[in-house]
DNA sequence: TATTGTTATACTCTATAACTATA
DNA sequence: TATAGTTATAGAGTATAACAATA
């Protein structure tokens, strides 16, 4: 239960407010042969993450992992993972929609959504209902148990949101969400040619 | 080249500024038997993600995926993935440090770091140097090629950072990094008992 | 011919146990 | 006994191709 991705820092004190000391950079590398690290050159104290702590992508990834870790811990009692929660929520808000629509709205590949739904169905939280008008498709709905669990989950989720809001200060949470949305829409890559060509 | 995780929205217009209409919620679910979605009840237009678009964890995950996607595209020419870039950067800033120290600082498991280093070494970007003082350990250094590639990579990375800064407005990028740091340190889970527990 | 759900499959990332060689 | 690097392996998460049933 611990996802990484870019690079994770678990134990390091993380010099967030410490001035990044970029002083001692060895313009030339030590001889790639053998090194006596007993001296003083490199074997000293903490590893310096330097610029990394100011890189949006890096900090973003770390924050996402931290939030998910907390989420998973909070939802352990409900036996729900983040993706499962999002699926329950979307089904709950859009009952009767096609299996493929639910999957697509969450960016889940259709093949991968099959096992997810199987699991939710096995636990009696959701159901596939064969459509009358198009017998290829499945209309997805929550069961009563599914709605009940979703309600409990939403309450737990609200707790996390409250903790986050507290951590970020007045208006901080909303501002963060807004800024993050700006990074998502419109896509960064498209229609954003680099400054000089 | 496309990572997901929670749930991803690729095509949906994403009602970021649209008021989440939470009106028509069917307190009771449709009969779990068969559904005629041809009527009007559920088979209508776009899927409603509703609360999800305001959940920090969800938006955070989506933003992280968006940034990484952009990163990977930008770094395609250099054949560097985010994790590889972070490793090169940390080695560059901390030449001669032990393999396990580099890995730990980035939260990479020691066993998983072996293959990463193998690859960087195979490409002539980094080298393992057997330490004289402790013949168990490897001191990791960048090669000249490694330093050269890192320099190019840092320039590319700076471009992404500039694009992000532009997207987020004056001071927005720095504020975002600061807020994200607050979510990471101290850990959300520890020492944060729920409001009423 | 196109779409829906499905199966099979593969690749990446992450995690743990256990080995080896040193200390 | 403990540590550094390694091997092997297992589990998620995600991606694509192809099939059967239906449109």
- Helix run count of chain A: 6
What is the chain-wise order of helices and strands of chain A?
Answer: HHEHHEEHH
**What would you call the structural class of chain A?**
mainly alpha
Report the radius of gyration of chain A as a whole number of Å.
23 Å
Q: Could you give a short account of the major beta sheet of chain A?
A: 3 strands, antiparallel
Q: What is the number of beta strands of chain A?
A: 3
Distance between the amino and carboxyl termini of chain A: 43 Å
Shape of chain A: elongated
Beta-strand residue fraction of chain A: 5-15%
Oligomeric form:
homodimer
Q: Name the poorly predicted regions of chain A.
A: 1-5, 7-42, 190-197
The helix fraction of chain A, in percent, is 40-55%
Strand order of the biggest β-sheet of chain A:
1-3-2
Largest interface comes to: A-B, 115 and 114 residues
Mean of pLDDT of chain A: 81
Question: What do these coordinates show?
Answer:
2 copies of one chain form a homodimer. By secondary structure, chain A is mainly alpha-helical. Helices cover 45% and strands 6% of the residues of chain A. Chain A contains 6 helices and 3 strands. Chain A has helices at residues 56-74, 82-93, 99-105, 110-122, 144-168, 172-184; strands at residues 97-98, 126-130, 138-142. In chain A, strands 1-3-2 form a 3-stranded antiparallel sheet. In chain A, a hairpin with a 7-residue loop joins strand 2 (126-130) and strand 3 (138-142). In chain A, helix 2 (82-93) packs across helix 5. The first copy, chain A, is elongated, with a radius of gyration of 23 Å. Residues 1-5, 7-42 and 190-197 of chain A have low confidence and may be disordered. Chains A and B meet through helix 1, helix 2, strand 1, helix 3 and strand 2 of A and helix 1, helix 2, strand 1, helix 3 and strand 2 of B. Chain A binds a DNA duplex (23 and 23 nucleotides) through residues 1-5, 83, 98-100, 108-114, 128, 134-138.
């Amino acid at each position: 239960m611990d996802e990484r991705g870019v690079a994770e820092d678990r134990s390091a004190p993380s010099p967030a407010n410490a001035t990044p000391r970029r002083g001692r950079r060895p313009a030339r590398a030590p001889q790639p042969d053998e090194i006596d690290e007993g001296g003083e050159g490199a074997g000293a104290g903490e590893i310096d993450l330097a610029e990394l702590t100011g890189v949006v992508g890096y900090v973003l990834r770390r924050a996402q992992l931290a939030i998910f870790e907390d989420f998973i811990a909070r939802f352990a009692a409900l036996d729900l993972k983040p993706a499962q929660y999002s699926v329950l929520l979307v089904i709950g808000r859009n009952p009767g929609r096609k299996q493929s629509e639910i999957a697509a709205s969450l960016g889940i590949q259709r093949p991968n959504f099959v096992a997810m739904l199987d699991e939710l169905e096995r636990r009696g939280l959701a159901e596939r209902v064969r459509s009358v008008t198009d017998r290829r498709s499945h209309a997805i709905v929550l069961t009563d148990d599914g709605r009940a669990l979703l309600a409990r989950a939403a309450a737990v989720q609200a707790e996390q949101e409250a903790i986050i809001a507290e951590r970020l200060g007045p208006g901080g949470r909303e501002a963060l969400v807004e800024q993050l949305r700006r990074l998502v829409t419109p896509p960064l890559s498209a229609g954003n040619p680099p400054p000089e060509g």
